[in-house]
Every structure is written in structure tokens, then in C-alpha cells.
Amino acid sequence: MGDIDTSGTRLLVCPYCGHEHEDSWEFKIEDGSEVDCGECGRLFFAESFTSVTYYSEKLEQDAHD
Q1: Rounded CA separation 64/37 (Å)
Q2: CA atoms of 45 and 28, how far apart (whole Å)
Q3: What pTM did the predictor assign?
Q4: What are phi and psi of 20, to 5 degrees?
Q5: H or E, element range at 12
């Protein structure tokens, strides 16, 4: 079995068996945590990262347009 992609994934992925945890948002991961895999039962280290994006739009037509 090759390396399992565990970096920058949308879901928490077990580095041992590759299981994607659909309930990733339920894990309490702050500054890194140990997590039990729900599939193979092995303990692994996990971190979460948050990305913020913004959206804006004009409210009305501006006289400068």
C-alpha cells in the first residue's frame, strides 16, 4: 500500500488505513490532538486549519461608475 494523502484534505483521514471520517467536524482538535480511527482503531495525531475567504458586492449604483 502506498502513502495515504493526509495533508490539506477536506475530511480527517487516518494515516494508517486511509479511512475518511465523514464526521470530522465533530472532533475536538485544538493545537493538535490524538484521534482514534473509527475504522481501524489506531491512534494518530491530527491538526485542523481554518481558511477565511470574503465576498463583497455593491449596494447601489455609484455616481463614479
Answers
A1: 57
A2: 12
A3: 0.73
A4: -95, 115
A5: strand 12-13
Task: Write 36-45 long-range contacts (CB < 8 A, 24+).
Answer: 39/14, 40/14, 40/16, 42/14, 42/16, 42/17, 44/14, 44/15, 44/16
Q: What angle do CA 59, 64, 65 make, to 5 degrees?
A: 70
Per-residue model confidence as pLDDT tens digits over 2-53: 799 999 999 999 999 999 999 988 888 878 899 999 999 999 999 988 889 9
Characterize the bridge pairing of strands 20-21 and 12-13.
Answer: antiparallel
Concatenating the DSSP letter of every residue in 13-59 gives E-TTT--EETTGGGS--SSSEEEE-TTT--EEEE------------S
Cell 488505513, located at residue = 17
